[in-house]
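ok here's PDZ domain-containing protein:
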Amino acid sequence: MHFVSGRSIFLFALVCVLFFAGGFSAGVVVSGSLVLPEPLPSIFTSSLDAEPAGVNFAPVWRTWNVLNEKFVPASTTQELSDEKKIYGLISGLTGSFGDPYTVFFPPEESEIFQADISGSFEGVGMEIGIRDNALVVITPLKGSPAIRAGLLSGDKITKIDDVSADAMPVDKAVKLIRGPRGTVVRFTILRTDENEPRVIPVTRDVIEIPTIETKKQDGVFIISLYNFSAVSANLFRGALREFALSGTPKLILDLRGNPGGYLEAAVDMASWFLPAGKVVVSEEQGKNGKPILHRSRGYDVFTDELKMAILMDGGSASASEILAGALQEHGKAKLIGTRTFGKGSVQELVDITDKASLKVTIARWLTPNGRSISEHGLDPDIEIKRTEDDVKAGRDPQLDAAIKLLNQE
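and the structure:
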C-alpha cells in the first residue's frame, strides 16, 4: 500500500522492516590468549587457548615472578590477587596498541559499560573521547546535568575533581565521572579561544538518553535525532511519517550533539533517501580483510522535490557522520554547521570472562566516496558557528541558516 502527500513529493511504502540491534558483537576469545602461571584462577581456565606461535612470553613470566618475589606493598593491608594482576597485564597489552577506543573492561568497568549501552545510568550525561591526545567532551546530552551546568562540545578536560586528566584513558575518566545521584563532580576545562581554565561543578543525576523530537517552524519540518539506539530507526520512520503529512517538502535533520550508536540504525535511516544498492558506508578491515560495503535497503520514498539540510557540529560523531556523509555525497542534503568530531572506527565487544570484556577496534569507516571519517571528520557545505553567547541567549544561527536556505530554494 502506498500513499502520497498533498503536494506529491513523497511516496511512502508501508513496509515491515527488520531492525538489527547489533552494534556490538559479543563472543569468546578463541585465539591469542595468554598462557598464565600456575595456579590459574578458575575464571580463566575455560577460555585459555594455545600460546601464539612465534611469541616469546619469557619476559612476561620473568616480570611476574620478580614482582611476586621482590615487591613490597606500601601498606600491610594492601593485597593484590592474581586475578587483579592478570587484569592489569591485559590492560597494559591493550594500551600498547595506542587506540583510545580499544579498551579492556575489568568486571566493575564492564558493568558500567553495559549500563551505558542500555540507555539509563547515573552520572552527568555526556559523551567523552580523545582528540589530539587530550580528553574532550564530545557532546553533553540533551537535558542532562552536563548541559545545564554549561559544558560544551569540544571542551578539553584537564582535571576531574583533583585528578589530572593528562594522558587519562577514557575508561578511567568514565569511572571518575560516574557516581550516585545528587553528588557533585568538578571539571576543570579549557575552552577553545580561552586562555584560562574554568571549573564547572556538575551534580550527578539519573540519565535517560533522549532519542528524537519533531516540530515545524517557518514552513520547514525539523527532526532532531539525539542518538542511534536500537529503537532509533523505528522512531525515525514515525518521524518521517509525520513529515509526509506536514504538507512541506522542506526537511532539516538536526544531528548536532549526536554521538552516534548502532551502525544498522544509520544504514536504515539512509535507506529512506537512497535507491537500493547505493553505498552508505564502507568498512575498511585490517591488512587481511576485504572492505565491507553497507548498502541502502532501497526504501527511497522521496521524489526530487525534497529539500533537505543536515545540522552538524563537533558533537556529531560515529553513526551521525555515517548518515550525514552518505546523504551529502549522494546529493540528498546540504551540511550546515561546523566540522564533525571524526569518530570513524568500528568496535566489537568481546567477552573475555563472564564478567570482563574487551572493546576492540576492528575496522575504519569510509564515506561512499572513500573519505576517512576518523582522519578529518566531515566539513559542512555551509560553515556557521553557534557561540556560547548564542546558546545562553537562546539564539540558533545554524538552524536559522538552514531554514533560510531551504526557503530560498
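+1. DSSP finds twelve helices and 21 strands in the chain.
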